[in-house]
Every structure is written in C-alpha cells, then in structure tokens.
Amino acid sequence: MRFSRFRIEAVALFATALLAACGGGGGGSSDSSGGSGSSAANNSSNGGSNTAQATTTTTTTQSNAATNSAILIVPASQITALPGASGNASADGTAYINAMRKNVGLATLPGNAGLATASGDHATYLVDNQAYGHTETAGNPGFTGVDPQTRIGAEGSFTMMGEVVVAGQPAAFSDSVSPVETLFDAPFHRIVMLDDFTSMGVGYMANANWEAFNIDFGSTSADTLSATSLVAYPYPGEQGVPTSWFANEDPNPFASATQYEMTTVGYPVTIQSAFGSTLSSLQFTITATNGTNIPCLASTPQTMPSELSNAALCVPYSPLAASTTYTVQVTGTLTDASNQTHPINVLWTFTTAASGVSHNAVQGLSNRPLPKF
C-alpha cells in the first residue's frame, strides 16, 4: 500500500516468507502501519502473483452523462504478454510491472539509477541479515538508511516515493516471476504498483537461505493521471483473471472477518484515483453472468482510514468460478486535489481463466512457505 513521506508501514511475520508494503494508495497518520499519502508520498508494498495472463481487452463503457463524473481509464487496445520466468528476477519484475501498467492503460515506468541503487541496497541488506520489511538497523551489515524515505531520498529528489518488498526462504518463490506476481495479486500492494509514479528501480538478492525482491518508486514530475480518472483491476474486458487468492496480506483485508485470514478467497478487485484525491461513500457490487451476486468484503478510506485515501478494494469471500464473466459496479464520490467533487458510477466486466489461481493461492494449497505482507 502507499504511505506519505512521513509514514512507514509496519510489517508482520506471517509465515516463513515475509512480504511488506508501504505505498501510495492510501492515507493516514504518520504512525500507521499502512496507507498512502497524497503529497510528497512514499509507497511500500508487496503482493501476490498471477499465473493467468490477459489475452484480449474489450472496454466496457459506463454511463457517465455528466462530464464532471469520474471515469475509468481505457485499457490498451493491444495486450502485452506477461513475461515468462527468465531466471532474472529484476528483469522479470520490471517487465511484469510495465506490461501490467500498459495493459491497464497507464504509462510504463522507466528505470531510475538512483531508485535502482536504493532498491538493490535494501534487498542486499535483507538477505545479509535474513530480515524482511522496510526498516534497517544501523550497525547491521549493509545498512544504508533506516527507512525507505531516507534511502530513496539519498538517491534523488522525488515529489512522491514508494517501496514494495518481499523476502523469505527461497522455497517460497517458485521462479523468477513469482516475487513480483506475489506483490501484484495482494490488493493493498497492487494499489502501489498501479499508482501514478513516473519511474522505478528494481532490486534483487538471494543466497542459499534467504531471498529478497524490492521495488522503489518515485516521481520527479507532475502526475500523469487526470483528476477524474479511475484505475480498476482486473481492468475492463480482461481475460484469464485468476479465480482465487490466499488471504495472508498485511495490511489485512479481512481484519473485520478474521475467519477468512489464511484461507483461499476470491480474486481481489481494486479501484484507485490520482495522488492527492480521496474516495468516499463507495459501494461495490460484483455479479456473475447468471445474475448471482458475489459477496465481497470492501476496504475503503472510511473503513480503513489509516491505510487508504484514494483507493479501495473488495475481496470476494469465496473463489470465483472458472471461465465466467463478472460485472463490477462501483459508486461513490471522488474528491480531487482541488477539493472538487466528482460522482462515481462505473461499470465494467472481466472474465476468469479456465483454470488459474494466483501464485499465493497455489502456495496456500500446497503447504509451500507463504510470503508475508
């Protein structure tokens, strides 16, 4: 998830592999464990993995008669295939994020040498100390800065910044794509990866006992997302969406329904707006082709104010059906950085894979070590 410049997300041990996120999609106080900020913000997050790839895009239009209404950005007309595992986690992570961003309809992110240095240094620190999360302890091997804003700030001047990181036993990662996939499937972390940054740097380090994958994000120019734009995932018309996800993320989407923690649930839906904006009065509806309503637990800026401000998510309680088209409707209000309000009433569809669960769900079902968020 995202965090403001003055805020770092706490991460907790969840299994033998640990995933941590601080990011730019939420908002809240400086001592909170999650969230995203709007000005001079930092983001950190980790997420899940997608084994199914999108194959076609058909944009579903929504009826927004008023030009003042918030609208979904249009996905790419030509889908970019997600990378296969090359054995190089840094290269695969870069390719994966930019393919996803391009498919969603966002700008791709060029590499930044300073961000790559900060990211690689932190990944090395985590492996050297068999640690996880965003913080470092002075005096430990490889120490370069106590927190992401210190490390990133030392490498350049960024108006917004963020970090996502996952670490743990090598057995938690099946190949060189699974770290970035793990980050993306987890909804709070996905929000950071789809935020309106302008550059990134990917770092990776591993030895026989520990593995760490880190991405630092930054912005050095004005936002590219318009004040009324909304970014949805799964994106409108997406095909091959995973049916399920293993709910072990921190921040915890099921904090109010703990019986679903560490269980296989439906694939999360996220929606977000530009830095500096806020979302309110949000309502999610997910419906299957046959008209069946799919219950999901929503996390919004109102239910999780310490974690979210310009983003929200809804996670189905049960896995979705395979090869099924679902319709999502989200209503509410977007308040932009100029305090202008825009009604939200967007509708889109996506279709699940014939057989495909997220990387995390596969791990949860096979008793492999789980990444910790």
From TrEMBL:
Region (Disordered): 30-62
Matching SUPFAM superfamilies: PR-1-like
CDD domains for the chain: CAP_bacterial (cd05379)
Residue intervals of the SCP domain: 95-211
UniProt superkingdom: Bacteria
Compositionally biased spans, kind Low complexity: 38-62
Swiss-Prot/TrEMBL keywords: Signal
Entry's transmembrane regions: none
PROSITE patterns per record: PROKAR_LIPOPROTEIN (PS51257)
Record flagged with keyword Lipoprotein: no
InterPro entries: CAP_dom, CAP_sf, SbsA_Ig
Domain SbsA Ig-like: 292-352
Signal sequence, start to end: 1-20
Protein name according to UniProt: Uncharacterized protein YkwD
